[in-house]
Amino acid sequence: MRRALIVSPRFPPTSAPELHRIRVSLAHYRHFGWEPTVLCVDSATADGVHEPSLVDSIPKTISIVRVNAWRENKCRIFGFGHLAIRGLIPLYRAGKKLLSQEHYDLVFFSTTLFLTFILAPFWKSKYGCHIVYDFQDPWYTEKVPYSRDTAPGRWWKYRLDRFLSRFIEYFAMRAADHVISVSDGYVATLTRRYHWLSLSKLTVLPFGGAESDYDLVRSRKIEPKLFRPGDGLIHWVYAGRGGPDMAPIISVLFTALASLRQVDPEFAALLRIHFVGTNYAPQERTYKLIEPLARAHGLEGLVEEISERVPYLEAISLYEASDAILLIGSTDPDYTASKLIPCVLSKKPILALFHGHGLISRTAIQFPSVFLATFGETPEEPAFHAAVVKGLEWLRAPKFDLTAMDALLAPWSAKELTRRQCMVFDSAVGSAARPCNPSLDVAEETFP
């Protein structure tokens, strides 16, 4: 059995969107011939939401190496506090020790803390390990996605980070044996930017989901804190980030909701729309992004925003307790929502508002529980507004065939997407994918 060192700085009991590809795969890697070891930052010195219950979804037999990042309060004295910087040297030292003491065929970086990718060339040069990167977001972009007013943190730091990212990405990508990406747009960008990255070295692998997450929520009796199911109201839920790239889409939604409130005030009086976890800033620095927009459309009392991120399993409990789910994309066609499949697994009606040219739209349209409204170039298109209005009408009285859902979800299961990951691993180390060992079928772990 081959061995993989998986670098995932944020890892349970830390909760963050980027860790779920690895988390749901851990029960399946051995089935496809790979023994994983996870290298991460200990939750005591990491950032993000602390979620002890998430540890219950991880097989007890998985080897996990945790390191302490530099303390944030001390690093802030010197003008930095981002986990990517605080954790870089501790991760380097721990990885160096592991690679020098044991043999690993491959190192897999699965994180949005892209600065950690810089470790790969050093490890590859010294230990000869193969390198696979997971691009869940773009690292460097030619287009500046933020303005001085909307940039996260200080403007000069943001511009400096972008400047350095261009050169650090180039250095890191020289070590890549394979790159996984959640978007075909990211693949096109990387092949255009780096001539040595042929299409055979890039694989588009969207996010999947694990039905066992819902089983875990039920078995642990995790209940939503925002509302009480059966309270006589109608609850629609959106859980995830908000941002300037989403505001034009949300504005169209709120315009349609304002019209609905005028046409059917009785229904609107019962409706509550919950936006949760819209701001990724730490709790002491978070602020609301959606409610000001809602007020501008006259939706006070109908739209509620909790800007602080909630634990992942609590978000799952919100989906399960809701009457319907909202999925809102970005004006960037390459944006791919990691929560699509977890939401579909709820079997609840979903209104999805996405860019029509993205992979996420081609995925969402496959499921009968999803009403998809898309735009071509801009959300201001009249056809998009009409589609959103139609979607709201469908959401009030949804009809779809639940019996077809399991078959449609099978290609997006954690096990299937882990199989595809392992095919990439096999390719990266220089051989065709091998058949799984039948003797491992019984040993495969299921949760909870």
Labels describing this entry:
Rossmann fold; 448 residues; 2 domains; alpha/beta; single chain; 17 helices; seven-stranded parallel sheet; disordered C terminus
The residue ranges in which pLDDT falls below 50 over 5 or more consecutive positions are 431-448
Give the overall silhouette.
Answer: globular
Task: Order the strands across the largest sheet as they lie in space.
Answer: 5-3-1-6-7-8-9
CATH topology title of the largest domain: Rossmann fold
Report the β-strand fraction as a percent range: 15-25%
Q: CATH homologous superfamily of the largest domain?
A: Glycogen Phosphorylase B
Q: Quick check: average pLDDT? A: 90
Looking at how many chains there are and whether they match, the oligomeric state comes to single chain
CATH architecture of the largest domain: 3-Layer(aba) Sandwich
Any idea of the CATH class of the largest domain?
Alpha Beta
Radius of gyration from the alpha-carbon trace, in angstroms: 22 Å
Please describe what this structure looks like.
This protein is of the alpha/beta class and about 450 residues long. It folds into 2 domains: about 1-210 and about 415-440, Glycogen Phosphorylase B (Rossmann fold, 3-Layer(aba) Sandwich), CATH 3.40.50.2000; about 210-405, Rossmann fold, CATH 3.40.50.2000. The protein is built from 17 helices and 15 strands. The chain has helices at about 20-25, 70-75, 85, 90-100, 120-125, 155-175, 185-195, 210-220, 245-265, 265-270, 290-295, 310-320, 340-345, 360-365, 380-395, 405-410, 415-430; strands spanning about 1-5, 15, 35-40, 50, 65, 105-110, 130-135, 180, 200-205, 235-240, 270-275, 305, 325-330, 350-355, 370-375. It has a 7-stranded parallel sheet. Strands 12-11-10-13-14-15 form a 6-stranded parallel sheet, sandwiched between helices. Strands 2-4 form a two-stranded antiparallel ribbon. Strand 8, helix 7 (about 185-195) and strand 9 form a beta-alpha-beta unit. The longest helix is centred in the middle third of the chain and has 19 residues, at about 155-175. It is globular, with a radius of gyration of 22 Å.
